[in-house]
UniProtKB/TrEMBL annotation:
<keyword id="KW-0813">Transport</keyword>
<protein>
    <submittedName>
        <fullName>ABC transporter ATP-binding protein</fullName>
    </submittedName>
</protein>
<keyword id="KW-0547">Nucleotide-binding</keyword>
<keyword id="KW-0067">ATP-binding</keyword>
<dbReference type="Pfam" id="PF00005">
    <property type="entry name" value="ABC_tran"/>
</dbReference>
<dbReference type="InterPro" id="IPR050763">
    <property type="entry name" value="ABC_transporter_ATP-binding"/>
</dbReference>
<dbReference type="InterPro" id="IPR003593">
    <property type="entry name" value="AAA+_ATPase"/>
</dbReference>
<comment type="similarity">
    <text>Belongs to the ABC transporter superfamily.</text>
</comment>
<dbReference type="GO" id="GO:0005524">
    <property type="term" value="F:ATP binding"/>
</dbReference>
<dbReference type="InterPro" id="IPR017871">
    <property type="entry name" value="ABC_transporter-like_CS"/>
</dbReference>
<feature type="domain" description="ABC transporter">
    <location>
        <begin position="6"/>
        <end position="235"/>
    </location>
</feature>
<dbReference type="InterPro" id="IPR027417">
    <property type="entry name" value="P-loop_NTPase"/>
</dbReference>
<dbReference type="InterPro" id="IPR022467">
    <property type="entry name" value="ABC_transprt_ATP-bd_su_PQQ"/>
</dbReference>
<dbReference type="InterPro" id="IPR003439">
    <property type="entry name" value="ABC_transporter-like_ATP-bd"/>
</dbReference>
<keyword id="KW-0536">Nodulation</keyword>
Length: 240
């Protein structure tokens, strides 16, 4: 059996007495594009904070490329690339400087970092913007530069938290298409969104609602005879 890029088993998390995640389990297969669909407050960011170890996961088990996050945090995090919900590049540095800085955090030497920065910026279509300050990039370009940064240490899985928020229609489509393209080249992606039109029938899908996984599988099968919107409203009870 091939090993999953990400495996989450029975993870819960509370803020004081409020249980934000309740016994969450999901997997992202190698090279898969899996959408994590949930309305605001569903628990998507909390789950990402556990996977990135911003919060300690005290229950259940999280494995990245077979590495247990609690027992082997260094090995697990080395295989993870993250695009956060809010913008996280330094606007006063150039695109290349941002990438070099991130590479250094992963222990990549300067000359190797330069080679990799060129490689990943080519992948996201920004090789001609290396020397430009981030502040001068469009919103869509900044998102693509963040994806390049997330790729520089050659992770096996990318976590993208509402990566298209604030982008115009064209840039949204480009960032989504780029992420799908990356999965065709072996990187896996967990794509958190509240937008149903970002999900294709063949995608992996996990529906998270009020901290619980209500459905997981192939989007087409979850939708069944209905549209995904109808299925989502039915599962969450939001339509009643
Ligand atoms: N630091 C915190 N302290 C207390 N409650 C929190 C904290 N962070 C999140 N929550 C609560 O946990 C629940 C899940 O929030 P979370 O941010 O994970 O949802 P989300 O699906 O990412 O939504 P959004 O798209 O709005 O970010 C919400 O009810 C939120 O109010």
């Amino acid at each position: 059996m091939t090993q999953d890029a990400l495996s989450i088993q029975n993870v819960s998390h509370s803020f004081g007495r409020f249980e934000a995640l309740k016994d969450v389990s999901l997997t992202v297969p190698q090279g898969g594009f899996t959408a994590l669909l949930g309305v605001n407050g569903a628990g998507k960011t909390t789950l990402f904070s556990l996977i990135t170890r911003l919060y300690d996961n005290s229950s259940g088990r999280i494995e990245v490329a077979g590495h247990d996050l609690r027992r082997e945090p260094g090995a697990a995090l080395a295989r993870l690339g993250v695009v956060f919900q809010s913008r996280s590049l330094d606007p006063d540095l150039t695109v290349a400087q941002n990438l070099h800085y991130h590479a250094a955090l992963h222990g990549i030497g300067r000359s190797e970092a330069r080679v990799r920065a060129h490689e990943v910026l080519t992948q996201v279509g920004l090789s001609d913007r290396m020397g430009v300050k981030v502040a001068a990039l469009s919103g869509g370009q900044q998102r693509r530069a963040e994806i390049a940064r997330a790729l520089i240490h050659h992770p096996e899985i990318l976590l993208l938290d509402e990566a298209t928020v604030g982008l115009d229609v064209k840039s949204r489509a480009e960032v989504l298409a780029l992420t799908r393209e990356l999965t065709r080249h072996g990187v896996s992606a967990l794509w958190a969104t509240h937008l149903m039109d970002e999900i294709r029938p063949e995608d992996g899908l996990v529906i998270l609602h009020r901290g619980r996984v209500l459905a997981s599988g192939v989007a087409r099968e979850i939708a069944g005879k209905d549209s995904l919107t109808e299925a989502f409203l039915h599962l969450t009870g939001e339509g009643e």
